[in-house]
């Protein structure tokens, strides 16, 4: 291997490894700037971003409208805490509630916090509204789920890497196979307060449930007086070609959990959206966050909601997603053994005899395309929704070259 000692990347990778806990295994690229769908590293090499911060960058890097909102807000007011109300708060909550078709919004910061919020609200709703036996509330979740990394959330993870050695675990969750409506129905009892699902399992490899599953879950939840909580933190806000992944089957959950793209790739913003009969169970002092719904977050997120309200990004994702699908399906039998695509979101299963997902991502990076492996031989593609047709073709061509060896 030729080592160019003028390159800054190797030293920067070494330093990062030296000074941080190793809770991630990043690709050895060190990014210093970005615009739209493109990243530039410390050595000036350019990469097409096909991960988009796990959907946090749906609008691309440094979208001008979002950056302008952030700059303007930085010059006026950045933080109040929720002890006071600020002038961006109501607009954010109203516009997001309208986008979701819900009465109320509760802003938080990270996705995991939105999930924790949803769990707390569902339990309280269960005790106070449904009349569940005190201390007995349970929530039905799916195998292969990914909802975040807190101690409660990893308690019901079925990924041993995420769960092992972090006990004692939080009780109150029943795990059923994803996509199996009969199993889900059988798991519901009189103390079930919610079903918590990703409408498409992102971290699991963009796993789309069988058609009819989500409407079935909706029906059963209504019949059994159980809240349907849709974790749209990664699948929502345009990623799949619709505002929400649930929209593909006209399903309206009782609660949306949102995050990632809501912060425009600038600040962490998450939220729970639900009707007043659900979110209304929370009273002062029962839940909160110092930074949740801060002025900077709200100013950026208002513009995110306005971008989504135009429908342009959902359209782009749907149309360009078909091009991505066509390109990727052409590689099945040529190094890929499976492909799942919804909008600009794809899970690709690489023939494990050929190489691991990690190896494929490393080779893609050498060719100037950044993507992320998950679960052995699967790669996930989630480019920013501002990606062009030519850039999609470029990503597919580079993948084809990697698979051809
Ligand atoms: C579906 C889903 N829920 C929750 C989370 C957790 O979000 P965060 O990393 O912001 O806590 C993620 C993150 O990947 C996710 O994909």
UniProtKB/TrEMBL annotation:
One Gene Ontology molecular-function label: ornithine aminotransferase activity
Pathway terms, separated by semicolons: Amino-acid biosynthesis; L-proline biosynthesis; L-glutamate 5-semialdehyde from L-ornithine: step 1/1
Enzyme Commission identifier(s): 2.6.1.13
Pfam families reported for this sequence: Aminotran_3
Gene Ontology BP term (one): L-proline biosynthetic process
Signal peptide boundaries: none
InterPro entries xrefs: Aminotrans_3, Aminotrans_3_PPA_site, Class-III_PLP-dep_AT, Orn_aminotrans, PyrdxlP-dep_Trfase, PyrdxlP-dep_Trfase_major, PyrdxlP-dep_Trfase_small
PROSITE patterns assigned to the protein according to its UniProt record, in alphabetical order: AA_TRANSFER_CLASS_3 (PS00600)
Cofactor(s) recorded in Swiss-Prot or TrEMBL: pyridoxal 5'-phosphate
UniProt key word Amino-acid biosynthesis: yes
Keywords, comma-separated and alphabetical: Amino-acid biosynthesis, Aminotransferase, Proline biosynthesis, Pyridoxal phosphate, Transferase
UniProt cross-references to PANTHER family, sorted A to Z: AMINOTRANSFERASE CLASS III, ORNITHINE AMINOTRANSFERASE, MITOCHONDRIAL
Family: Belongs to the class-III pyridoxal-phosphate-dependent aminotransferase family.
NCBIfam families with a match to the protein in the record: Orn_aminotrans (TIGR01885)
Annotated protein name in UniProt: ornithine aminotransferase
Species of origin: Micromonospora lupini str. Lupac 08
């Amino acid at each position: 291997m030729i080592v160019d000692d003028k390159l800054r990347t190797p030293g920067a990778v070494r330093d990062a490894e030296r000074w941080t806990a190793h809770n991630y295994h990043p690709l050895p690229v060190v990014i210093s700037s970005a615009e739209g769908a493109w990243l530039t590293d410390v050595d000036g090499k350019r990469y097409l971003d096909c991960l988009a911060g796990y959907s946090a960058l749906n609008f691309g890097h440094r979208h001008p409208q979002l950056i302008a909102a952030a700059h303007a807000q930085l010059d006026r007011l950045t933080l109040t805490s929720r002890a006071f109300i600020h002038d961006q708060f109501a607009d954010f909550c109203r516009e997001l509630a309208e986008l979701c078709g819900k009465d109320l919004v509760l802003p938080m910061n990270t996705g995991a916090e939105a999930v924790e919020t949803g769990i707390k609200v569902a339990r309280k709703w269960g005790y106070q509204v449904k009349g569940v036996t005190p201390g007995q509330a349970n929530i039905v979740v799916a195998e292969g789920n990914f909802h975040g990394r807190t101690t409660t959330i990893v308690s019901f993870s079925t990924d041993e890497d995420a769960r092992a050695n972090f006990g004692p675990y939080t009780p109150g969750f029943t795990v059923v196979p994803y996509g199996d409506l009969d199993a889900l129905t059988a798991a519901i009892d009189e103390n079930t307060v919610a079903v918590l699902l990703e409408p498409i399992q992102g971290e699991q490899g963009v796993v789309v449930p069988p058609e009819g599953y989500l409407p079935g879950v909706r029906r059963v939840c209504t019949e059994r007086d159980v809240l349907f909580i849709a974790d749209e933190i990664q699948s929502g806000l345009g990623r799949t070609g619709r505002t929400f992944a649930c929209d593909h089957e006209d399903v309206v959950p009782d609660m949306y959990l949102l995050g990632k793209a809501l912060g425009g790739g600038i600040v962490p913003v998450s939220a729970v959206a639900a009707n007043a009969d659900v979110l209304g169970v929370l009273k002062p002092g029962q839940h909160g966050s110092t930074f949740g719904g801060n002025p900077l977050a709200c100013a950026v997120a208002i513009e995110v909601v306005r971008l989504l309200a135009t429908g342009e990004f959902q359209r782009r994702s749907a149309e360009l997603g078909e091009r991505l699908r066509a390109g990727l399906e052409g590689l099945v039998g040529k190094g890929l053994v499976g492909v799942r695509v919804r909008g600009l979101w794809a899970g690709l299963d690489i023939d494990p005899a050929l190489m691991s997902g990690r190896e494929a991502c490393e080779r893609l990076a050498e060719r100037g395309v950044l993507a992320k492996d998950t679960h052995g031989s699967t790669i996930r593609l989630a480019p920013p929704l501002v990606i062009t047709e030519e850039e999609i073709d470029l990503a597919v061509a580079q993948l084809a070259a990697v698979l051809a060896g």
